[in-house]
Amino acid sequence: MMHEVDLYGVLISPLLVCFVAAWVTSQFVTRALERVSFYRFVASRQLFDLATLITLTGFFALVFFGLENRL
């Protein structure tokens, strides 16, 4: 069962927590890909960044909800 995250009395959806973690990670991935000039091989940088963010959100949700179900 999904439980909300309590942040100083404010209940936050666990999916929002996963999204924020994915967004922060996505920023680091974007900077690393810029540094190695990866984006010259990508047709649409914005679409690639969005796909990266969605993939990382799914990964964090899988890890967060998967660990929660085992406890």
Keywords:
single chain; 71 residues; mainly alpha; two-stranded antiparallel ribbon; 68% helix
| Average residue pLDDT | 87
Q: What structural category do the secondary elements indicate?
A: mainly alpha
| Poorly predicted regions | none
* Widest β-sheet, arrangement of strands: 1-2
- The radius of gyration is 15 Å
Note the total helix count.
Answer: 2
Total domain modules: 1
Biggest sheet overview: 2 strands, antiparallel
Distance between the termini: 11 Å
* Strand/helix succession: EEHH
Topology diagram in text:
Elements: E1 5-7, E2 10-12, H1 14-35, H2 45-70
Antiparallel strand pairs: 1-2
Helix pairs in contact: 1-2
Explain this structure:
The structure is a single chain. The chain has one domain. 68% of the residues lie in helices and 8% in strands. The chain is built from two helices and two strands, in the order E-E-H-H. It has a two-stranded antiparallel ribbon with strand order 1-2. The N and C termini lie close together (11 Å). The relative contact order is 0.16.
In short:
By secondary structure, the protein is mainly α.
